[in-house]
Amino acid sequence: MTLRTLLAASLLSAAIAPAFAADPAPFTGNITLASDYKFRGFTQTRYQPALQGGFDYASKSGFYVGNWNSNVEQSLYNGASLEMDVYGGYKGTAGAVSYDVGAIYYAYPGSTGTKIDNKEVYLGIGAGPVTAKLFYSIDDYFSTQALFKAANPGKLGGSTKGTTYLDLAATHDLGDGWGVNAHVGVLSLKNGVANGLIGNSVTDYKVGLTKDISGWVLGLSYLTTSKKNYFTTGAISNVTKTAGDARTLVSLAKTF
After folding, report:
1. What is the domain class of 4-255 according to CATH?
2. What is the pTM of this model?
3. Of 10, 38, 139, 148, which shows the fewest CB atoms inside 10 Å?
4. What is the tens place of the pLDDT at every residue in 173-226?
């Protein structure tokens, strides 16, 4: 499920602009090696390393489409070892405010039994270094209800359609290739308790430091959650270690 926020928040140092700057390339790619993959505060790789990458196409008009991929823990996704995200939308500005509207589909090919996926639409706005993006699930949120029903025959759980995730983020350029970033995310999971979870909401937090080294962005972040065991990874059986534990994450990323 995005440590995409690290790459998105990391700004490459600006070169001196020529008199007539060329238009940015419509196609870009990205690759990241991270010590863990945390999505909305919870590990997706059992605290093991992740190799991630994707491609994007952005037109001059503001429309864009893209694909992003990461390895994930098989026991968490019914045997699937890969997450594949496909998204598209439109970005623009209105005065000093930027906006981003679109949709994203999270797929886990190779999962057996209950199919796990997620479909969301989103709306983001930004002003200067601060952004806010709201995601709205238009289907069963990562198959939460379906998984609950499969594990509890005879029980219906409750619809998770309408689950929201609010992502608040800020970045600051310190100069000389250095940058800092912070993030707070609030997941409001519809019928979370009815589907066997310990609450209907959870908050995740992140603070980070980045350094641009010849186009490669080295990141160091600290992440934690308000409910450490809100979501669990099947492979983590030690009661002292849960999927939302506070952790320091190291990453190396490049956009080309």
Report:
1. mainly beta
2. 0.89
3. 139
4. 999 999 999 999 999 999 999 999 999 999 999 999 999 999 999 999 999 999
